[in-house]
Design goal:
Length: 717
């Protein structure tokens, strides 16, 4: 075995991964190996926390860990107290300057990461290592303040196993125990603790104020109460899941998959804004005034909405009945028929809803109420206003109603050379004019904006609706997955006796966008382009399959873990036959199971004690008997061997048949233990019988006289 890490660099190992790491670490001194292993665990914890702390903190932590690893690699001494104090002041000061405090979630997480890294510069004793271990466990736990996703849980599980392995390794003091052994013990410890963990998860009371974890910065959505051209187009590069839908039966046809979000009615010439902001949540409970189902055809479904920090619920357009929300949640319908909740969605939210495929919305809306939906700034988009006047002057449309005007504009979009693109170029100060006459290209929001502006100039009430359109069915679990890149904008026009009617002008420009779920994809990166050139079909095939599996796993995680609420907890107990369930029932069941687990653990320990190595038990009984005749405490230990006991018997007792019987028996016991693999249990049984027949050794023989005693003169003559 080499004595330095430099010598280990020359070690050639044909495999990679953990086996290669373990093989390379075998060439390092144990202190260096254990230190580098602990630094690696710390680096993993910092890497998990990196998305949630400032960039400067991540860079500082990485630099300090690299410096600390170089000290270990080159056997350099640790920095003195002045350097450590300066680093501490810099970390605390940097955190305070960045967050203006050192308390709270974000500042606290940043500070705890930096303190964890700084503690490695005091790694001089096992006590310091234990502090790092326990601080590492706490830092891993803080990740749940930001996210409770499956990916986060997987990363934390890896960190926990690594910390357990390091903790086990620190307890193995003697020799050079391999890291593989430490990892094996850590995995067994985790496996033994899993049943208790499952019991506590299933039955531990859910207290809403304590159980919920904020995730303010993790969730994102491109939908809000404002629409600026280009916002939705940027979402095409975001492949994250917005929500998942489980339809009861077959899903509706693709042209009906419009999930309604914020509705924009106020227009300032450049941007669109919602007529009424969700906050504050006041007024009556959920209502469906002005909505009438035009046919009995409806769709029942369940939604798993990802956190988006807004109050909007994503529902099929439109939902006539209030959605069924979990306990503690309430909903109401906004004037434009979108649904909102009483608080922002900061965690995965599960709800059920029923939507009508055919409906009449707001047919009785008064002219006064429609004034906002007719307004267009006089100075904005002059060419679009001129286009509206020319359409009105067209003899074919002079006496036409709103339906014919809408059809004429849609025909212009279909035949006027307009294209659907992610990169329409500059929109100018008058985006509608630019689309109709200059670029003739745009994304859904550009097309919807131009269409609604033209409708208002034609005297037809119109507004922009944002949400999601389409999605895809996951063949693994059958759920309908809607991603951020499915974000969409369309229009609604108000027609007499029909009310608000959905018109999607994008379908006229690009029918595949809403008919066959054709999506514009962002240009692939360098690696994606290279793979596509080598095998055009490999990336789509492999990527789609892996994504479907991952999405299905995430769905199960969100459904079974994240959404395991108090109501579902009580429902589980009812399904198990507990009848009327309350907090008392829950506590009783939990206490009963914990007592049962404790009894099972005690019984297992007793059985394990009884099934201890029979050879060791036989040796222990021999030591107990020899202790009657003066076996010293140094030999009355579990580590004593039959050879040591035999030597003590030879040196202590005179040559008698009893001594010979003991010597022969101890020799046979040692021979059986260390004999070839052919030693049989029958021989051990015979040794056990002979042990019961061993005679008493009697008193120890007197000690031999010393040399002075042999030469001393006898007293008297």
């Amino acid at each position: 075995m080499t004595d330095s890490p430099q010598a280990a660099r020359a070690t050639t190992v044909p495999s990679w991964g953990l086996r290669r790491l373990f093989s390379l670490s075998a060439g390092w001194p144990r202190e260096s190996r254990d230190t580098l292993f602990l630094l690696g665990i710390t680096a993993w914890i910092v890497l998990l926390q990196a998305p949630h702390i400032p960039l400067w903190a991540s860079a500082l932590a990485g630099g300090l860990l690299t410096w600390r690893a170089a000290m270990t690699w080159q056997h350099q001494p640790l920095p003195g107290m002045p350097v450590r104090v300066a680093l501490l002041v810099a970390c605390v000061g940097g955190t305070a300057l960045h967050f203006h405090t050192i308390a709270g979630r974000d500042a606290g997480s940043t500070l705890i990461v930096l303190l964890l890294v700084l503690k490695t510069f005091e790694l001089r004793a096992r006590r310091d290592a234990f502090v790092i271990f326990f601080l590492g466990f706490f830092t891993l736990l803080s990740h749940f303040f930001y996210s409770q996703s499956l990916a986060t849980a997987t990363g934390i599980l890896i960190g926990v196993i690594a910390l357990l392995a390091g903790l086990v390794n620190a307890q193995l003091r003697a020799g050079y125990p391999p890291l593989r052994q430490s990892f094996g013990i850590a995995l067994r410890m985790a496996a033994w603790g899993t049943p208790l963990m499952l019991v506590l998860f299933v039955l531990f009371p859910r207290f809403a104020p304590l159980w919920g974890m904020p995730s303010n910065d993790m969730a994102r959505t491109g939908l809000s109460g404002d629409m600026r051209l280009g916002n939705i187009a940027r979402l095409v590069e975001d492949d994250s899941v917005a929500f998942r839908v489980r339809f009861e039966g077959e899903p509706p046809p693709q042209p009906f998959l419009y999930f309604r979000g914020p509705v924009m009615e106020r227009f300032d010439g450049h941007e669109w804004h919602a007529l009424q902001e969700p906050f504050p949540f006041r007024g009556p409970p959920a209502t469906t005034a002005g909505l009438v189902a035009a046919s009995p055809a409806s769709v029942r479904y369940e939604v798993l909405l990802q956190p988006h920090q807004k109050q909007w619920l994503l529902l099929l357009d439109v939902t006539v009945k209030p959605p069924q929300l979990p306990a503690g949640w309430s909903s109401r319908q906004m004037p434009a028929y979108e649904w909102i909740t009483n608080r922002p969605v900061t965690d995965v939210l599960r709800y059920r809803a029923t939507s009508a495929l055919h409906y009449v919305a707001g047919a009785d809306t008064s002219a006064q109420q429609l004034r906002t939906d007719l307004y267009s700034p006089a100075a904005a988009n002059p060419r679009t206003r001129a286009l509206a006047q020319s359409l009105r002057a067209d003899p074919r449309l002079a006496q036409a109603g709103p339906d014919a005007l809408v059809a004429a504009v849609m025909e212009r979009l279909r035949t006027g050379g307009y294209t659907y693109t992610l990169e329409p170029g500059p929109t100018g100060t008058d985006p509608a004019d630019t689309f109709w006459f200059d670029s003739k290209q745009g994304f859904c929001e550009h097309i919807a904006n131009a269409f609604v502006v033209l409708m208002r100039d034609l005297g037809i009430p119109a507004r922009v609706v944002t949400g999601y359109q389409g999605g895809e069915r996951n063949p693994v679990d059958g759920l309908w997955t809607v991603r951020q890149r499915d974000a969409h904008a369309w229009a609604e026009v108000w027609l007499p006796r029909r009310g608000w009617v959905r018109i999607d002008p994008t379908s006229a420009v690009s029918p595949g966008r809403t008919g066959s779920l054709a999506r514009l994809e962002p240009r692939p990166g360098a690696l994606g382009s290279m793979v596509e050139r080598l095998d055009p079909g490999f990336a789509p095939r492999s990527g789609r399959s892996l994504r479907n599996l991952w999405d299905a796993a995430n769905t199960r995680w969100n459904s079974w873990i994240i959404n395991y609420t108090q109501d579902r907890q009580f429902d589980l107990l009812r399904q198990l036959g507990f009848g009327q369930v309350n907090w008392t029932t829950l506590v009783q069941v939990l206490a009963g199971l914990l007592i049962a687990l404790a009894l099972a653990g005690g019984l297992w320990s007793l059985l394990e004690h009884r099934t201890t190595d029979p050879w060791l038990r036989l040796l222990a009984r021999a030591r107990q008997r020899l202790a009657q005749w003066g076996l010293p405490a140094t030999l009355n230990q579990p580590a004593s061997t039959p050879g040591q006991l035999r030597s003590w018997v030879l040196a202590t007792f005179a040559a008698t048949p009893a001594r010979k019987a003991w010597i022969d028996w101890l020799t046979a016991l040692e021979t059986w233990r260390y004999a070839a693999r052919g030693a049989s249990p029958a021989e051990l049984t015979l040794l056990r019988r002979r042990a019961r027949q061993l005679p008493s050794l009697g008193r120890p023989r007197p000690a031999a006289p010393s040399a002075t005693q042999k030469t001393a003169p006898k007293g008297g003559r």
